[in-house]
From TrEMBL:
A GO BP annotation: negative regulation of programmed cell death
Organism the protein comes from: Timema tahoe
InterPro entries: TM7S3/TM198-like_dom, TM7SF3
Primary location class: membrane
UniProt-listed Pfam families: Ig_TM7SF3_N (PF25992), TM7S3_TM198 (PF13886)
Membrane-spanning parts: 293-311, 318-338
Leader sequence residues: 1-27
Organism ancestry: Eukaryota, Metazoa, Ecdysozoa, Arthropoda, Hexapoda
Keyword terms of this UniProt record: Membrane, Signal, Transmembrane, Transmembrane helix
Places the protein is found: Membrane
Protein known as: TM7S3/TM198-like domain-containing protein
C-alpha cells in the first residue's frame, strides 16, 4: 500500500511539474507576441552608463499598432534614442498613434529621438505592422547625456526633423549609405566616424540579422567589431558609396563625437538584393584611384608589367598563365553557386568601365570562409596544372607547333608533292634505303621501323645463314 501511495505521489508531482513548465513556456511565448493595442514597457533602470543598450525581440501581429513605453529614464538624461528593426519586411515607427507628416518613418532599420527634461522620466513611441503577416521586430533604447551629440539632429533632407537613422540604397553595382549631421548648434565641432562590417555570405536568417544589429548599436561594440571606413575627398561627408556584393549583407553605422561624448546612429543592414524575391542568387580604398585617368593608367601599367617581367621565362610564364587562368575559370561557376566573392576580381573591373558612379565606390570585399576555401582550391589547381604541363613539356621545344598545324603541313606535302628542287629537297632524292637485306652481312639491314605491318613482315623472313668468312674463336 505504501509503495502504491508513493508511486501515485511521484506521478502527481511529475504531472504538476510538467503543467507548470507548459504554462511558463506559453506565458513566455505570449509575452513575445504583441497584438493591436498592446503596450510594451522597456525599462532602462538597469543600465550602468549612458549609451548602454536595452533591447528585446517581439513579434508584432498583422495590421497591428503597438505602444512602446520607455520608463525609468534618469532625470539628468539629455535624450533617448529608440530604434526598431525588422527582418526583410517594412514596419512604421512614429511619435503618435495617428500618422502625421514628419512624425513617422517607414522601413526596416528605424529610429526616433525623444528629447528629455527634468520633469519627464519616460518616452512613448508607436510601432505599426501594416503587413498581412506577423513580423519579428528587434526594439532597443539608449539613453544619452545632455552633452552628447544628437544623431541626425541637424537634418535637412530626411522626412523627420531629427533623423538618427541611415538611409541605405543599392543597385546591382553599388551601395549608397546616407546619414544626417548631428546637433545643429555645434555642427562644426562634431566629428564623424563611419563603420561597416559584413554578415556571413548567403545567410538570410533573422537570428544572424538581429545579432549583427545588436553588435552595432553601442559605441564600444561598433569600434570593436566593425571596420572604420576611410573619408572621401568629394561629395557629402556623411555619404559613402560601396561596391555591392549581392547576397552578402553589410551593416553600416555612424559614430558622432562632440568633445568627450559620443553617440551612435541607428545601424542599417542591406543585402544589396531582395531575399524576399530571390534576387540574391547571383587594392582597396585608394582615393588616388577615384580619378579615371589614374585608375586606368595604373591598371594598364600593371597589366603590361607582368608579361614584361616574365619575358625571360617565356615557357614557364606560358605555363603559369595557363594554369592561373584555367584554374580561375574552374572555380568561377562554383563561386557563383555557393555565393562567395572571388568573381568580383573581374566584375569590379567591368563595373568601373561601365558605371560612372562606381569610381567613388569603396572596394573592400568580404573575405570569409567560403572565399578562403575557394582560394585554397584555386591555388591547388594552379600548382597541379603547372606540374602537369611542365612534365609534358620536358625534352620538347619551348613552343612546339600546334598539332593541327603539323597535320596540315603533312597533308599539303602529300597532296601537292614538289617537282622542283628547293633548299629542302634531299641531295640523293632517288636513293632508297633497302627495306630488307638478303646478303650475309648486316651492313644493309633495314633500320628499325615503328610500322606494325613492317614489323610483322620482318618477323616472317628466315634468318640469314651464318657467314663462314666471319672470324670465330679458334678451337683447339
Amino acid at each position: 500500500m505504501n509503495i502504491m501511495l508513493n508511486f501515485n505521489g511521484i506521478h502527481y508531482f511529475t504531472l504538476s511539474l510538467l503543467w507548470c513548465v507548459i504554462n511558463v513556456s506559453m506565458a513566455q511565448v505570449s509575452a513575445n507576441i504583441l497584438k493591436d493595442g498592446d503596450k510594451f514597457i522597456l525599462s532602462v533602470v538597469n543600465t550602468k552608463e549612458y549609451g548602454d543598450v536595452v533591447d528585446s525581440i517581439q513579434t508584432v501581429m498583422p495590421l497591428s499598432t503597438v505602444q512602446i513605453d520607455i520608463l525609468d529614464i534618469p532625470p539628468n538624461a539629455g535624450f533617448v534614442l529608440f530604434q526598431a528593426h525588422s527582418h526583410i519586411y517594412n514596419i512604421t515607427l512614429s511619435y503618435s498613434v495617428v500618422l502625421m507628416p514628419h512624425t513617422y518613418v517607414n522601413g526596416t532599420n528605424l529610429g526616433l529621438v525623444g528629447m528629455m527634461d527634468s520633469s519627464s522620466g519616460s518616452a512613448t513611441f508607436f510601432l505599426r505592422n501594416s503587413n498581412m503577416f506577423e513580423v519579428p521586430v528587434l526594439i532597443a533604447s539608449q539613453v544619452y547625456g545632455k552633452d552628447a551629440p544628437i544623431p541626425g539632429g541637424c537634418n535637412m533632407e530626411f522626412p523627420v526633423e531629427v533623423s538618427p537613422f541611415l538611409v541605405v540604397k543599392y543597385n546591382s553595382k553599388v551601395v549608397v549609405a546616407d546619414s544626417q549631421p548631428a546637433s545643429c548648434d555645434e555642427t562644426e565641432f562634431v566629428s564623424y566616424d563611419l563603420y561597416r562590417t559584413y554578415l556571413p555570405e548567403k545567410d538570410f536568417t533573422s537570428t544572424t540579422y538581429f545579432t549583427a544589429l545588436r553588435n552595432m548599436m553601442s559605441v564600444d561594440n561598433i569600434t570593436m567589431k566593425a571596420k572604420k571606413v576611410t573619408a572621401v575627398k568629394a561629395g557629402p561627408p556623411l555619404r559613402r558609396v560601396y561596391s555591392a556584393y549581392p547576397g552578402t549583407a553589410s551593416v553600416h553605422s555612424v559614430i558622432a563625437t562632440l568633445g568627450f561624448e559620443s553617440a551612435a546612429y541607428v545601424p542599417a543592414i542591406t543585402y544589396a538584393c531582395d531575399p524576399a524575391t530571390d534576387s540574391c542568387e547571383v587594392l582597396t580604398d585608394f582615393n588616388y584611384l577615384e580619378n579615371d585617368y589614374n585608375y586606368w593608367v595604373v591598371y594598364i601599367c600593371l597589366m603590361l608589367s607582368v608579361p614584361l617581367l616574365l619575358i625571360p621565362f617565356n615557357q614557364k610564364a606560358n605555363i603559369i598563365s595557363c594554369a592561373v587562368l584555367g584554374a580561375y575559370a574552374v572555380i568561377i561557376p562554383i563561386d557563383h553557386y555557393i555565393g562567395s566573392n572571388l568573381k568580383y576580381i573581374i566584375v569590379n573591373i567591368i563595373r568601373r568601365a561601365t558605371s560612372l558612379e562606381f569610381k567613388s565606390a569603396i572596394i573592400a570585399p568580404p573575405y570569409q570562409l567560403r572565399d578562403l576555401i575557394l582560394t585554397l582550391v584555386w591555388a591547388g589547381l594552379v600548382g597541379m596544372g603547372y606540374v602537369v604541363q611542365w612534365q609534358q613539356q620536358l625534352g620538347k621545344p619551348p613552343f612546339p607547333p600546334p598539332p593541327w598545324q603539323v597535320r596540315g603541313e603533312r597533308f599539303r606535302r602529300n597532296r601537292f608533292p614538289q617537282t622542283t628542287a628547293t633548299e629542302r629537297t634531299p641531295l640523293l632524292i632517288d636513293a632508297r634505303i633497302p627495306w630488307s637485306s638478303t646478303g650475309d652481312d648486316n651492313v644493309f639491314d633495314s633500320p628499325p621501323s615503328t610500322s606494325n605491318w613492317q614489323s610483322f613482315l620482318r618477323k616472317l623472313q628466315p634468318a640469314a645463314p651464318a657467314n663462314p668468312m666471319i672470324n670465330h674463336p679458334q678451337t683447339a
